[in-house]
Amino acid sequence: MSSFHGKSVLVLGGSRGIGAAIVRRFAADGAKVVFTYFSSPDDAQALAAETGSRALRADSGECDALIALIVSLGPLDVLVVNSGILGAGDPLKMPPDDIDRLFRINTHAAYHAAVAAARTMPDGGRIIFIGSANADSMPMSGLAAYSASKAALKGMVKGLARDFGARDITVNVVQPGPTDTDMNPADGPLKDVMHDFMAIKRHATGAEIAGLVAYLAGPEAGIITGAAYNIDGGFAA
Ligand code: NDP
Asked: Is residue 2 predicted with pLDDT exceeding 90?
């Protein structure tokens, strides 16, 4: 297990699900963790109290405010951009404004947060996005915008890895498959459909995703950058 004693970690979207598991993992490993939330203040405050971390309300869909918040926090050793929304539905019926907001949260926020953090990030820092295996495989209808918003992160980490590599800052994307959270409960109505696409026919846990994030944030992963890691039970294999 990596140790992050004294490291400053920011997790965007940490109040629930995978983000909360990431907050728990870094806090357990000794990091000073700040996380953002938007719609779930009670979950956020409970997690902050449980882990000794700090919760700040910030909408990842409001990029100017998000950038200002990151600047106000000072140098970060690790940035994890986890905040994301699904936005599933018939594309002929989905309001264009909803699609634009999905891209602001899932895609634009990742870019702006990474650049804002990199301005003061020390050499050897880590930037990790939570993408999706749907960047590589989209076997269901109604998720075109979502999969596009996550596929963009694969290109983004390749470019940002070049931009920040001279400072030994790594930039990678972790791409979960079905993972047991409020967004995708392990006992939800689509579980059998999703498991059919998988070699290992179960949802992942948030802790399993957090384990890969911790590895990429740790000292053994200093040469890994510009990469996308599927952690999906073979969903996209
Ligand atoms: P949940 O819906 O369970 O949790 C989403 C988290 O993101 C919450 O903490 C939520 O905070 C936060 N969030 C959402 N919108 C915003 C916003 N506008 N501003 C700030 N925070 C926000 O989702 P998961 O834990 O399942 O998903 C986490 C990430 O993993 C997402 O990016 C998702 O796309 C990705 N993913 C998930 C998979 C799965 O099967 N679960 C599979 C592949 C990828 P709050 O409630 O406080 O607003």
From this structure: no
Q: Categorize the per-residue pLDDT at 18 as very low, low, confident or very high, splitting at 50, 70 and 90.
A: very high
Q: CA angle, 224 as apex, 203 and 202 as ends, to 5°? A: 5
pLDDT at 160: 98
**Is the alpha carbon torsion for 53, 39, 185, 90 positive or negative?**
negative
Residues 6+ apart with CB under 8 A from 95: none
Residue 207 is encoded by which pair of tokens? 């802790």
Catalytic position from the list 37, 146, 215, 229: 146
User: What does the chain come to in residues?
Assistant: 237
Residue pLDDT, tens place only, 72-97: 999 999 999 999 999 999 999 999 99
Atom of ligand 1 nearest to the CA of 14: 9
**Dist. CA 125–CA 102, nearest whole Å:** 28
- 146 carries an active-site annotation: yes
Hey, what domains does the chain have and what are their CATH numbers? Answer: 8-231 (3.40.50.720)
